[in-house]
């Protein structure tokens, strides 16, 4: 299933080939994705894919009067994942998700990512089951097909902040195409941006051999809306010769963090 280009999944070229309560399979093109803060290849699109496919397998387990809201996701990668993807940029990354454990008030989806039959990563998505909200929006109709060949940052409607730590800050403009069915910024979009600012923070002082993202953990706490004051902030917590850890936040107009993330990187 291809999605309309006027939806978050369509804009990033996500294609779902199988879905149901026992297994979901989807793919995303990631071979030419570049972090606008560093100019380096990025694994950030995998965060978009895990949010989708892991959340989808949880969503298919809901009752008729329920909806799902993702509370957290995690992604564990081979450190050389970006290089492997970039070596065959026209081949999409494929994710397969399955449920883990019984359905309760919370569900867990387990995911595996492959590229040319090489396992790149594993991931989890945890979702809450809530009463179905009354303001769920249907995906609009529109053309489908490959997304426009524009930089990842343009698709995400993010720009590098000017001055005062610009290497660690991305501004999130308001763009209705990026919103999910609840009318807030799609969790996969935010997860991508958080990975990018955290990775940039880790590598801000490294001129030669970069540290590469090996794990990403994201906690969704509050609704996050794009706008003139909405931003993603990355802060290095520890950077050594071979490892680095950074925290990232998505902060809205009220100045309160809505989403938190942590990235661990290795040589």
Shape: globular
End-to-end gap: 37 Å
Q: What is the makeup of the main sheet?
A: 12 strands, antiparallel
Return the structural class.
Answer: alpha+beta
Tell me the Rg in angstroms: 17 Å
> Roughly what percent helix?
10-25%
Number of domains: 1
**CATH level-two architecture:** Beta Barrel
CATH class category label: Mainly Beta
CATH H-level superfamily title: Acyl-CoA thioesterase, double hotdog domain
Strand proportion, as a percent range, falls in: 35-45%
Low-confidence stretches: none
What topology does this entry show?
Elements: H1 8-11, E1 15-18, E2 24-28, H2 44-59, E3 66-77, H3 81-86, E4 93-100, E5 106-115, E6 118-131, H4 152-156, E7 158-160, E8 169-172, H5 187-202, E9 212-220, E10 231-239, E11 243-251, E12 257-266
Antiparallel strand pairs: 1-2, 2-4, 3-6, 3-9, 4-5, 5-6, 7-8, 8-10, 9-12, 10-11, 11-12
Helix pairs in contact: 2-5
Organism: Mycolicibacterium elephantis DSM 44368
Protein name: Thioesterase domain-containing protein
Domain Thioesterase: 183-255
Gist?
Pfam families: 4HBT. The protein is of the alpha+beta class and 267 residues long. 18% of the residues lie in helices and 36% in strands.
């Amino acid at each position: 299933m291809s999605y309309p280009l006027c939806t978050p999944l369509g804009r990033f070229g996500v294609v779902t080939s199988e879905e149901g309560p026992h297994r979901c399979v989807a793919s995303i093109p990631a071979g030419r994705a570049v972090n606008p803060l560093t100019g380096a290849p990025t694994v950030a699109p995998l965060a978009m894919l895990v949010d989708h496919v892991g959340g989808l397998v949880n969503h298919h387990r809901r009752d008729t009067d329920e909806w799902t809201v993702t509370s957290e996701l995690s992604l564990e990668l081979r450190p050389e994942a970006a290089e492997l993807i970039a070596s065959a940029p026209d081949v999409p990354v494929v994710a397969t998700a399955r449920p883990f454990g019984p359905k309760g008030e919370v569900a867990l989806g387990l995911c595996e990512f492959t590229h040319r039959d090489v396992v790149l990563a594993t991931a989890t998505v945890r979702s809450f089951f809530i009463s179905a909200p009354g303001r769920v929006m249907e995906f609009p109709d529109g053309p489908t097909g490959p997304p426009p060949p524009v930089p990842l940052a343009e698709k995400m409607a993010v720009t590098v902040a000017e001055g005062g730590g610009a290497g660690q800050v991305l501004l999130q403009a308001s763009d209705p195409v990026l919103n999910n069915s609840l009318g807030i910024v799609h969790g996969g979009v935010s997860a991508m941006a958080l990975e990018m600012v955290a990775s940039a923070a880790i590598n801000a002082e490294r001129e030669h051999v970069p540290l590469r993202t090996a794990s990403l953990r994201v906690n969704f706490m509050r609704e996050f809306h794009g706008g003139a004051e909405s931003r993603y902030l990355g802060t290095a917590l520890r950077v050594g010769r071979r490892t680095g850890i950074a925290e990232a936040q998505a902060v809205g107009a009220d100045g309160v963090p809505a989403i938190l993330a942590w990235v661990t990187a290795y040589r």
